[in-house]
Automatic annotation (TrEMBL):
One annotated GO biological process: galactose catabolic process via UDP-galactose, Leloir pathway
Keyword Isomerase (UniProt): yes
InterPro entries per the UniProt record, alphabetical: Epimerase_deHydtase, NAD(P)-bd_dom_sf, UDP_G4E
Family as reported in the entry's similarity comment: Belongs to the NAD(P)-dependent epimerase/dehydratase family.
NCBIfam families with a match to the protein in the record: galE
Organism from which the protein derives: Subtercola boreus
Named cofactor requirement(s): NAD(+)
The name this protein goes by in its record: UDP-glucose 4-epimerase
């Protein structure tokens, strides 16, 4: 059993690759290293460096592994352009990286008989939903090219399944945080946790955008899940597909409970040992007051439940951020 992880040199992808290895499943990684890091790829894992947009490269990788001693039995597809806000300014780039790449991947899978795919989707497919508790039945209405490409990716895979019998599911992430190893940190310039960690390391004051929302403490409430739990969900889904067990088209990876931004800040100060009072800035347009996701369907079908606490998320993420700051790279 060998699974290909696209984007496997990224923050989430490298955690997924490590989780597969820990489960005794051989892993191959494709990554163009545009945002991933070769050093994030676990030891002993082959890194096929190149872009999924390059069809000749993708076809070559799949052809070589199809004739190897360990042919691919499935794909976890995480590679893509992931910055929702920036995607509004770069829609064509976003569609090329996320849709053209997925078409090339699906074609190569079909041509070489790879039967299963777990797709990395996103809460961005729901857009600025009025639903305070998001289930898989919540209406999809993406508000950025990034969110649109994730939804179209789900459609592409589902259509290919109708045409070819492809086994598939999509996992919709909400806020992925923390680290399972100090060797891998979240390097995003947009995510809350690395922004706060970076500010604390630089002696700056972290910021809260808006404190007059209709929530208990006035700040936005979000659903946070540890990256190790997200990685475990991919392994669980892959095992189900390998066993021929049908899964739904999409599952939310949610905790069912929310944490406010102010609660995050208070916990950050406690866990890091760096006291601070966050600066409060005006609310950003389009930020919903509360989004919390139900993980009940994933628990029912994939046997998945988040296992880490908020303190786990912060302490592990902080340890990885400190390790990264002392890394020669």
């Amino acid at each position: 059993m060998t699974w290909l992880v696209t984007g496997g040199a990224g923050y989430i992808g490298s955690h997924v690759a490590r989780a597969f290895l820990a489960a005794g499943i051989e892993v191959v990684v494709i990554d163009d290293l545009s945002s991933g890091r070769a050093g994030f790829v676990p030891d002993g894992v082959t890194l096929e460096q190149g872009s999924l947009v390059d069809k000749a490269f993708v076809d070559d990788v799949f052809a070589r592994w199809a004739s190897s001693e360990h042919p691919l039995t499935g794909v976890v597809h995480l590679a893509g352009y992931k910055y929702a806000g920036v995607s509004v300014q770069r829609p064509l780039h976003t569609y090329t990286q996320n849709i053209t790449a997925t078409v090339n991947l699906l074609e190569a899978m079909h041509e070489t008989g790879v039967p299963s795919i777990v797709f990395s989707s996103s809460a961005a497919v729901y857009g600025n939903t009025p639903a305070e508790f998001v289930t898989e039945e919540t209406g999809t209405s993406p508000e950025s090219p990034y969110g649109e490409t994730k939804l179209i990716g789900e459609w592409l895979i589902a259509d290919q399944a109708v045409a070819t019998g492809l086994r598939h599911t999509a996992l919709r992430y909400f806020n992925v945080v923390g680290s399972a190893t100090p060797e891998v940190s979240d390097t995003s310039p947009h995510n809350l946790f690395p922004l706060v960690f970076r500010a604390l390391q630089e002696g700056k004051t972290p910021k809260i955008f808006g404190d007059d929302y209709p929530t208990p403490d006035g700040t936005c409430v979000r659903d946070y899940v540890h990256v190790a739990d997200v990685a475990a969900a991919h392994v669980a889904a892959a095992r189900k597909l390998d066993a021929g067990i049908p899964l739904d088209a999409a599952y939310n990876l949610g905790s069912g409970s929310g944490v406010s931004v102010r609660e995050i800040m208070t916990s950050m100060a406690s866990v890091t040992g760096i006291p601070f009072t966050p600066d409060v800035l005006p609310a950003r347009p389009g930020d919903p007051a509360r989004i919390v996701a139900s993980g009940e369907r994933a628990a029912r079908d994939v046997d998945w439940m988040p296992a880490h606490t908020l303190a786990d998320m912060i302490s592990s993420g902080w340890a990885a951020a400190l390790a990264a700051s002392h890394s020669p790279s």
